[in-house]
Amino acid sequence: MHSFSMRLNHAVLAFLLSNVAAHAAAPTPAEIVAHAPDSAWRTVAPERLLQMVMADGGRVVIELAPDFAPVHVANVVRLAQAHAWDGGAITRVQDDYVVQWRVRDEKTASPKGFVEQPPAEYDRPLAGVAFRPLGYPDPYAPQAGLAAGWAAGSDGARVWPAQCYGTVGVGREMPPDTGDGRELYVVNGEAPRQLDRNLAVVGRVLVGMEYFGALRRGTGALGFYTDAHQDVPIKSMTLAADLPQAARPHVQTMRTDSPTFAAYLDARAARTDPFFVRAAHGVALCNVPVPSREVR
Description:
This protein is α+β, with helices and mostly antiparallel strands and 296 residues long. It contains 5 helices and 16 strands. It has one domain (27-115, 162-294): Cyclophilin.
C-alpha cells in the first residue's frame, strides 16, 4: 500500500511539474514582442510619419494611411507643410470615445493642391491588398483581419480600416460632407466600430497614445471644452521627412506576415501563462494591436 501511494504521489508530482513547465514555456504577448527578431519589424518611412508636438512638451507620432485614404492623407500632409497645425489646439476630449483637434484657423486660405471636397474614402477594393484573416468571428464585418498591416474589415470585395484604439480619422459634418482634414480625431477608448466605413481613416498613433489618455475630459456636449482657455495648444505637427535627419522619429511596426506576429496573435487569443485560469480561445480585432517600437 505504501509503495502504491508513493508511486501515485510521484505520478501526480510529475503531472503537476509537466503542467508548470508547459505554462512556463508559453510566452506572453509582451514577451513575444520583447524578443522579436529584427526580421519581424518594418521601418515606417519618414514620408508616412507625422510628429505632433504639444505646447506643454507632449509628443505623438502618427503613421499615415495613404493606401486607404490617399486624398485625405495628402490634405493632412499639405496642411502640415503649410504649418497650419502650428498654433492649433485640441478642443474635444470625450471619455472613452475620441480626442479631437483642429488647425490654427479653419478659414485661412487652403494650401496649393488642397482638395476642398475629398471623395468618401471609407473603403477600397480588396484586390491588390495583402489581407490576413484574423480567424475569429467579427460582429461588424463578414471577415476581420490585417490588411497591409492595418486592422481591417472586409466583405470579400472591399476592405476598410477598423476604428480601433489609436486610430486617427477625419472629423466631418453631416453627409455628404466627408471632412477635408482640418479637423482630426483619435479613438481613445473602446473601439467605436460603428464608425467603420463612415469616416476617413488617415492614420494610427504609434508613439505617445498615453498623452491623449491623460488629457482632462471636456465637460461640454460630446466632450468639447466649454472655454477656449481649456483648449490644449499644439506647437507643431510636421511630416518626419521635412525634419532634419537628427530630429526625425524612427519607428517600426511588426510585420503582420511574420511568424512572430502569428505567435503574438495566438498568444493574444489563448493566454496560457500562469495568471489565466481559462484560455479564451478567441480575440476581437481591436484587441490585437499591431506592436510598434521607437528606435533611438
